[in-house]
C-alpha cells in the first residue's frame, strides 16, 4: 500500500518510493494541464459562471485533507443568523449514498436524512445549525436555487467549492492548514495541491486553521497573498464539550485531565484529533486512525471495544463525524465519549465578521 502522506511530505525517502514519485510526477503533469485549461476557460468567459439571486460564500481549500471546512461552515451559519440573515448550506454531499439530484438533509426544522444517505459532513452541519436548511446534490446551481425558492435563503454557504466554478461566489474563503505544504508545490498525485498555488489569487480571503502562535504561511502562498493584497485571518479549533455517543450525557472537556483514553477516528486529519485530546490533559493509551469517511464494520468495532477493555482505559473516544457514522451500532455508541469542537477566530472574531458582512451587504 502506498503511503501518500510520506510521498507528499518527502519524509523517510526510500528506494521503494522513487518509482512511485516518478509515476506520480508524470500523472501530475497531465492533471495540472487539465486543471489549468478548465480555469482558463472560466477566466476568459468561455465557460460561464451562474450568478444566483442572493450572495454566495464559498468555503474551500486548494489542498486535499482536512483543513476544518465543516467547523467553518457551522461558524459562518451562526454568524449569519446572528446578523439577521437566513442562510442555507449547499454541499456536494461527498460520501453520501443518495444519487438524487436534490437531497434536503434538513429543512431548518427537522433533519430528514441520516448520515449514510446525506454524507457525514452535511449531516453534522444540519445537526449543529438549527434553523438553517442543508441541501446536497451534484449541481450547486440547482441546490442553491431550491434553497432560495423553497426555503427563502438570502445567503448561501457553499461547502467545499474552491474548485467549483459553475456558480458565482461573492466571497471565496480559502482555508489553509497551518501545517502547510512542507515545500511540496506539486499537484495531485505527486503533491497535496488540488490546483497550482497560483489559484490562491481567486481567494477573497485566507483563513488559517489550527493557527497557533508560531503558525506561518507557506513561502510561495505568502508571496501570492502579498502581491494580490488578500486579507488573512487566523483560527483555532477549540474543544467545545464531551457527549456520550447516544447523546445521553454531557460533560466539560476538563473531565479528560489525567484520564486514560483509547481513541479512534476516520477523518482526513487524525493528528488534529489526537492533539486535541492530548491538549485536554488526557493520557492516550492507544489511537487507531482509519481512512476519511470510513464506515466501520462489526469486526472493527469488536477490536476497538476489546482494546479499550484490555487497556483498562477510562474512556473510549471518537469524533463527532465518526459518531454520526455509527448510528447503526447503538450499543457501541453508548460506550463512546464524543469530542465536539468548534472554530474560533483569533485573536478576535470581529474583524473577520466585519469583512464577511461588508462583502454580502
The percent range for helix content is: 25-40%
Query: What is the terminal-to-terminal distance?
Result: 50 Å
Report low-confidence residues grouped into runs of 5 or more. none
How many discrete domains? Answer: 2
Helix/strand-derived category reads alpha/beta
Tell me the number of helical segments per DSSP (H or I, 4 or more residues long): 12
User: What do we call the CATH topology of the largest domain?
Assistant: Rossmann fold
Write down the oligomeric state: single chain
Key descriptive features of the protein:
2 domains; 361 residues; alpha/beta; Rossmann fold; single chain; 13-stranded mixed beta sheet; 35% helix
SSE inventory with pairings:
Blueprint: H1 4-9, H2 17-43, E1 56-60, H3 69-82, E2 87-91, E3 103-106, H4 115-118, H5 120-128, E4 134-136, H6 140-151, E5 155-159, E6 171-177, E7 205-209, H7 219-228, E8 232-244, E9 250-251, E10 260-265, H8 270-279, E11 283-289, H9 298-310, E12 315-319, H10 320-324, H11 330-334, E13 336-346, H12 350-360
Parallel strand pairs: 1-5, 1-6, 2-4, 2-5, 6-7, 7-8, 10-11, 10-12, 12-13
Antiparallel strand pairs: 3-4, 8-9, 8-13
Helix pairs in contact: 3-5
